[in-house]
Amino acid sequence: MNKRQARVFAIASTALATVVFLGLTVHSHTQFDELTNAENNTPQVQSGRDVWHRYNCVNCHTLFGEGAYYAPDLTKITQLRGEQYLKAYMRDPSSFYDEQRHRRLMPRQDLSEQEIDDLIAFLDWVSKVDNQGWPPRPILVTGASIPGTDFGLPQTSDAGASASLPPGARPVSGQENPIALGAAAFRSVAPACNACHSTAPGVNMAGPSLAGVAARAEKIIQAPDYQGEARDVKGYLIESIRSPSAYIVPGPMYSANGQSFMPNTYAHDLSAEQIEQLAEFLQTLK
């Protein structure tokens, strides 16, 4: 290649790269509204964004991988914690943790109720932005699963009959095993159950440990203070998924004003079959 040919090649390559770059830039801009749910960027969301900046939340927390990396990443927090939990936590974080024991240093910001509502609206909008998997591994809230760490939950290779089951569970011949399907749903429904509950004894997170939940359920439905409608263990577990406030587990970390912190959306977001499968799985935790 002589000098003239090299010059032409360099100019042509630069021109082509420039055209490709401009084309990709224009394409990206045409996708921004869809990727960021622009139609849901309401005045309340914008007010919540202002709250986020006003109280310097980014000094400790991260969104989309940007922030201080001192405290949990909050990009998907509203998919891991219900609104009632988030409200109670923002009102008084110290009531959820013993700071001397757990070293949780979240300061009490004394946000107004309107500021809390707006901030949750902003975080909910953030959680629904298509960030295409970025960051690849954010700092997670307690209990949100990292592959290979499911806090006592039996591992399953798939949702079928070949999946490994909890101790004592028997495979169902000739059909998909409902217990294995329930174990898979425990990890995969939104919000994922194992984002708040462990199945290991004594490991209480945002929600109480579900180790021994079947045995506890039997005692609860026989207790005189139980006001729900369940008559057996499976019925109680289904009721707890559909109507979390039907029975309130004692403890200030789990409820406020008679309302459970567990999301009350599963009755609408899950099919009856999925709820049945979750109950089948939970019944094995004795």
Overview of the structural elements:
There is one protein chain. With 286 residues, the chain is mainly alpha-helical. Among the domains are: 36-127, Cytochrome Bc1 Complex, Chain D, domain 2 (Orthogonal Bundle); 178-283, Cytochrome Bc1 Complex, Chain D, domain 2. Helix content is 42%, strand content 3%. It has ten helices and four strands; from the N terminus they run ααββααααααββαα. The protein has helices spanning 3-35, 43-54, 83-91, 99-102, 113-127, 178-188, 213-222, 233-242, 266-269, 272-283; strands at residues 62-63, 66-67, 255-256, 259-260. The strands form two sheets. A two-stranded antiparallel ribbon has the order 1-2. Strands 3-4 form a two-stranded antiparallel sheet. Helix 2 crosses helix 5, helix 3 (83-91) crosses helix 5 and helix 7 (213-222) crosses helix 8. The chain is elongated.
Properties at a glance:
single chain; 286 residues; mainly alpha; Cytochrome Bc1 Complex, Chain D, domain 2; two-stranded antiparallel ribbon; 10 helices; 42% helix; elongated
